[in-house]
Amino acid sequence: MPNEILSTIKSPQDIKSLTDEQLKQLCKEIRTQIIDTVSVNGGHLSPNLGVVELTVMLHNVFDCPNDSIVWDVGHQCYTHKMLTGRYESIGTIRTKGGLSGFPKRAESEYDAFDVGHSSTSISAAFGIAQAKQLMGDDSHTIAVIGDGSLTGGLAYEGLNNAGRFKKNFIVILNDNKMSISKNVGAMAKYLTSIRVKPSYLRVKNRVENILSHIPLVGSPTKSLLRRSKSRVKNIIYKDTLFDQLGYRYYGPVDGHDIDSLRKALLAAKSANSPVLLHVITTKGKGYQYAESDSASFHGIGQFDIDTGEPISSKTDFSRVFGDALCRIAESDKRVCAVTAAMRTGTGLLDFSHMYKDRFFDVGIAEEHAITFSCGMASKGMIPVFAVYSTFLQRGYDQLLHDAAMQKLHMIVAVDRAGIVGEDGETHQGVFDVSMLNSIPNTTIFSPCYFDEMKQSLDTAIYGCDSLVAIRYPRGGEAARPADMENSSMNYDIYGDRNAKKLLITYGRLFSNAVKAYEQLKAQGESICILKLCKIKPIDKNAIQFAKDFEKIHFFEEGILAGGIGETFDYELTKIGYTGLYKVTAIEDRFVPHSTVADALKENNLDADSMCEIIKND
Description:
This protein folds into three domains: 6-292, Rossmann fold; 317-471, Rossmann fold (3-Layer(aba) Sandwich); 491-615, Rossmann fold, CATH 3.40.50.920. 40% of the residues lie in helices and 15% in strands. Helix 14 runs parallel beside helix 20 and helix 21 (509-522) crosses helix 25.
């Protein structure tokens, strides 16, 4: 019988009476289920395979939902979901109306906090623990954070504050030497030094045990040593950074060994102080292709289980961007590439090999990446920071204060702009335009095609002198109309220039606009399309062109408030436009997980919706 044990698990209570052999079998069944599910639905494979035993033993030792588990990022929650009553629904994960690929408080009482971005777990868990204490609740709160997330500044802010907490607060450091790309920086080296010296904890425990058995003086001496800042303490206890911050450090522990995890978790549970439990895991554990290439299998679409090959491997914007940047960097030694632990995802793998001295992976630290780039720009370098739209949100202050205010010339390559689909609310790239549109001294390009993206990059580097953003969608380019003229960098006109109705859009929505144009034309209705490529500042000639139309419809794959549609309306009003003007965009809401096509339709941004809206105005 497939999933003989897993199929019987309705809540974490059901695993508490299992033998070690049954727990090991459960872990095997979970791994098989994860691989089967992700191969069909896409999702985060490597992170989930790496935490199977850890998740099983967390629920075996602790009493959830009374005890709270906060997962950092949350892309490793599939095992957690299956153990908390959602096994029968796991096949719906990341599909419209199905389970989210991330923890959601509205989905289950076992999901303590909504997550999707890195480095938030310790701060959130500390807040939960503090609230519990105020309410007289002495249950445990556990933050599970990866070594990759520990490169983010927010993690250190949380560690610093939570180290003062008295008890029942545990930070589990899931150390797999990876974030999405290989970890970098001083913390990665520090954790390596701890991993190769596991004997120090045994020494520490042995000294404490000896002192505890010395009559009268043993316990006071042990307490004095713990409080002491002397060299004696450092020699005997071999303190880690985490000890210095107020945590009792346990580890390193084999994160795939049931018995070792049980002992470590029970020790952490009984400690009368904040605990940091250091667990060593293998990202992609149990699936050879994911183990050997965990970065590619971190987040993946549909794939063939037997070969590990993706079902679709078309050229995408990320790859074209990376190739274009390599071409420019070959002849211009001022050009540098910066990424926040997303070397592969943003198309910079080749750049990192070809121009090692000009490639900078700063870890999951978007704020630092921007200000670091500004520092380079202040000395004449031309940094290009490649980042997903959803993660760029974290650097708003740096974009405004450090880049634009000083008119420093840096380029932000905004990957995954627009709706991304199955990853859902936390990852939809629909806020970057409104955010960037509010910042002075900023130029924004939103190309529709590969060649436009390459032209935008050339223009950003050699035709601009301040902050520039180039935003492009996930995946490949849409079909181009056969009668489309060569694109300009500012705007293009397509369709019937003598029509009374004008459709304005930018980015990949142009392809839907063309389909709507063809549908309307077949029904005897004529329209013109104004396609913007440079969306900030908007070309004044484009505004002058638009003012002669009786009715204007602006379609935008982004948030309505503060978007380009509102800006265009304002510019038209300034020159006296009195016709009908309507913006269709995402109105004051978060976009849930589904396919991109379904999400566009839901927000009236597909071709059929465009056609209906224009016909019925």
